[in-house]
Amino acid sequence: MRETKITLSEKEIPRQWYNIAADMPTRPKPPLHPGTKEPIGPQDLAAIFPMALIEQEVSTQQWIDIPEEVLDIYSLWRPSPLFRAHRLEKMLGTPARIYYKYEGVSPAGSHKPNTAVPQAYYNKQAGIKRIATETGAGQWGSSMALAGSMFGLEVTVYMVKVSFNQKPYRRIAMETWGATVHPSPSTLTNSGRKILELDPDNQGSLGIAISEAVEDAATRPDTNYALGSVLNHVVLHQTVVGLETKKQFALVNDYPDIIIACCGGGSNFGGIAFPFIQDKIAGKQIRAIAVEPSSCPTLTKGEFRYDFGDTAGLTPLMMQYTLGHDFMPPGIHAGGLRYHGDSALVSQLYHDGLIEAKSYGQMTCFEAALMFSKSEAIIPAPESSHAIRAAIDEALIAREEGKEKSIVFCLSGHGYLDLAAYDDYLNGKLSDYEYPDELIRESLSRLPKI
Description:
16% strand, four-stranded parallel beta sheet, 18 helices, globular
């Protein structure tokens, strides 16, 4: 019988996270204080983050130990399986070998608990009682709610309003794990109230939700802020995905030519790709492709500039690819991946030409998701379907060229709480949206002058 599922034992969960900052040819420029525009220090972040995470944020140490308490919880779903997509290969008639790393086996159904658990752990160790955070489509909010329940932390989630209404089951999952969920923009913060004064029907964005959560955390001494993507320490925690994937490829005597993942803020892409990019920096010939929606084309149409991480300008300025901190993604977009910026690490690697980026409309991504569902049986998260689309396209190129290639993508989550989006697609209620260049230029025109 051919091997489909490549598994590791719990003893092979990585004991350390990999920090790509140690090996990058060009390290990202330092974050700047939102008021003074000068490089920030640890004390500037201490109001909303525990010192252990601040140290990871600025670390250039190559390997960082994973605490035993975190490993113990990781073992509930890690190591996650690597699948060989034999049936998809047959459907496509491709000589390419297609693999996918399946992160939907976590209790929250995505890769996000890989960082939610350590963030909850470090906050608990620092004596914090409560976490304020944001979520877009709900994967991060669900994961933080789960992690909070593991460590006895109160969790408050500001959920982008359009997703709050579109995805009630994500909200219910968060509430089941004990979190309180507010649609954002809300009337609970100054940031939210200002937005609603200008636009009472505002459907929200991740930038707005971040502003609300940061404001919440900064105004309560018992509360810290937690972010589900973008920041260095978040991407660091996700490297357990790529490190496991490398071990699994070794078991079948293979190595990927192409690594693919969807990219919103960058943690999913960095999580699977960075351990392989370490090899590329050392001379290995591989490609790594970050895939984003054409409705929020941060890498493919944004500019490499200093920008705020949130709409209200409360966060430090990061050197990143950005569409502008007041960028408003369209409500028609069915998945997450709505963030205006990208990880400083991912952005620098893209700027240096070490990674590639592609963008797709949601219709072709849902088409790919249905192909995958019918061949591999798993219904993927809409976000993950972007990676599937790119993997299928690369496999079809291999067929046209008659070349064998090894392709791996991260199936970052399942879509069983996103079936309303599939219902809309199947009933013709979705459409593509190419974000207009003139609106991007307008948003970029309001970037801070550094």
